[in-house]
Amino acid sequence: MLKHLLTQFQTALQGSGLHPLPCEQAGEGLPALIADFEGRPENRVGKRVRRAPRQRVYRTLKHLNRAAAAGACAGVVGREAHKLLRAIRTFPDFETLEKRASKFIGFQNRMGRRRNERKKREREPVIRVDSSLALRRVDTVEHLRTIGRALKLCVAQPGYEYRSRLRDGSIVFWSIQCDGGLIGLLSIDADANEMEECDGFDHQPPELGRAVMLKILRKLNVTADNCEAFAAVGALNMFLERPARQPDAVVEFQGSIYQVWGWRGQVAIRRRQRLWSHFRWCSRGSEWVDNYCNEDISLGQFVDLVSHCPQIATVVCEQRASLGKQHIDGPAVATGQRDKADNDGIELAIQGQYSFR
Q1: Fold entry, domain 126-234
Q2: For residue range 194-207, what is the model confidence (pLDDT) as tens digits?
Q3: Which contiguous run of DSSP H or E holds residue 321?
Q4: Tens digit of each residue's pLDDT (9 = 90 or more) over 16-48
Q5: What residues in the chain have per-residue pLDDT under 50?
Q6: Where are the domains of the chain?
Q7: Among 41, 204, 206, 335, which one is most buried in terms of CB atoms within 10 A?
Q8: Can you tell me the distance from the alpha carbon of 288 to that of 294, in angstroms, rounded to the nearest whole number?
Q9: How far apart (Å, rounded) are the C-alpha atoms in residues 333 and 336?
Q10: Edge-to-edge, what's the strand order for the sheet holding 194-199?
């Protein structure tokens, strides 16, 4: 076995692309290092070499054979292989050779994994949103970690729960690229088909704009009413089919202009052309639910609007009545902020002018 591995090494050296003189020196220096190592008293039993030292020699020779084969390849792996082969004659003992050969194999394996990762990444689906924006599917943990490090996101940390969810397919990730540069990461709950998070650099929302975010939702065919980055700019389900839909009511109240839309038991309110709030009627709980993503109007402020603005009260009344006896179940109901006093206030405000019957 030893003689066979040494012969293999001599043959591989000839095709390694190394200069003939270093090839000859490596071929002569290797048997001497092995003979010195195996000749030590602690490595022998009588005339025989102990099993463990001989296995170390076999393993190192296999590593050197891989290095000699890699020497014929262009690139960084080939250069590192040549460095190792040229240095064989300078090593003082077998242990140094063993350590350097093992280190090279580790390096070669890492480069191989990166190459495979790049090839797999190139095969990942790409969705063009517009001429400058694209979404690329993230299918591997290594790719997810790379994106996390680039954007300074928590998915880059070891042991993060998203990794196991990525492996079992319960979550889907898409990177957001603008003109080829990475600007954000989307995560989608595969079971609910709903956007979970949308993060840019250091967990700040990417600067995409409402129209672009609605395009992303249509391209991915998902909803995002409970994703803060989307809800904050009004990229809601009710606008997927008609992004430029005109508001059902426009009201001036306490110095602010409020635009109000109603859709399938939901009410969206935009203030000052940029601040959005979203409310949903829950038939099961007989109450209005404040989307937890709201940063502008609370449920209590919603009561004031309904109380003082008949046009808004009309929209609220119509959306509750449009559901009949249906129940709305979903993340917004489960996570929304409920306040019985506020809901009673809405009831009284509306009943003072309109009837649900």
Answers
A1: Aminopeptidase (3.40.630)
A2: 898 999 999 898 88
A3: helix 310-323
A4: 777 777 677 677 788 888 888 888 899 888 889
A5: 325-338, 341, 352-357
A6: 2-119, 126-234, 249-351
A7: 206
A8: 14
A9: 5
A10: 126-128, 133-138, 171-178, 181-189, 194-199
